[in-house]
Amino acid sequence: MVQTLYGNGANSIWEHSLLDPSSSASGKRKANPQDRVHPNKTEFIKAKYQMLAYVHRMPCRDDDSVTAKDLSKQLHSSVRTGNLETCLRLLSLGGQANFFHPEKGNTPLHIAAKAGQILQAELLAVYGADPGALDSSGKTPIDYARYNKA
Q1: Where, in residue numbers, are the ANK repeats (predicted)?
Q2: Is the pLDDT of residue 62 over 90?
C-alpha cells in the first residue's frame, strides 16, 4: 500500500505541512540524506508515516459536521476504486474510516472488502477502520473478504 501511494504522489499529502515555507521557521523539516539514521531519520519516518504529523488536517468544530459527513460519503464511494490517493486525501481531510452510511447500511471497509480492494482496506485499517463492524445485514467486512477469497 505504501509503495503504491508513494509511487502515485502521496508525499504531497504525507508532507503537506513541510511544503509550506513557514514550516522551516517552525523547526519542521524533511530529513536530509546527510542526516544520521538515529535519531534524525528514524524520528522523521515515525512522524511522517505512523503519526501522520505532516498531513493537512482540517480544523474540527461543531459546525463542520456537514463537511466531515460529506467527506465520509465521498470516501464511502471512493473505496470501491483502486485510487488510493483520493482515499488518503479524503481521510487526511477528515473523512471517517468508520463512517456508517445510513442509506447504504455499511462502512467504507465493507465496500472495500466487497469490491476486493485489498489496498483500500489496508489504508482504512491504518486510519482505524473496524473490521468487526456490522452492516445492516449483520455482516462484517471480514465476512465479505472471506466470501471474495473463496
Answers
A1: 104-136
A2: no
